[in-house]
Amino acid sequence: MLKVRPLLDQVLFFINTKMKYTLLCFLLLVIGSCSSSIEFDKAGWAVKDDMVYPNRKNMLADLMGNHQLKGLSYNKLIALLGEPQGQVPAGGIWYTIEENYGLDIDPVSSKILLFEFNSTSTVVRFRTEEYKK
Questions:
Q1: Shared domain check, 101 and 55
Q2: Same domain as 64, residue 18
Q3: What pLDDT digit, counting tens, does each position of 78-94 carry?
Q4: What is the mean pLDDT of the chain?
């Protein structure tokens, strides 16, 4: 007589295993496609909603990775990114990437993109900095 129970267990195990791998692949696909990185463009970078720049955080990786920023003159950098939000006494400028206010009137954390220039006003370094209250 054929033992149906062990055969049924093997079939169910195979289906469950296959479904687990399918579900895992689906979840990885969904997580991977949820990347919030978007391509840099000047108009999107300049968008300001109330006190925040909603696109800058998502454009930052593309801007820093795919655009030649080091070696740009001050004027070309301003033409690309617009007027900076602040200046550094040592001869640098910075752009606000994001600010979080929480329940406070002042920012509780912020992230900026900082540019440093040499004596000929050419970008020699750029980096992000984060501040927390």
A1: yes
A2: no
A3: 999 999 999 998 889 99
A4: 85
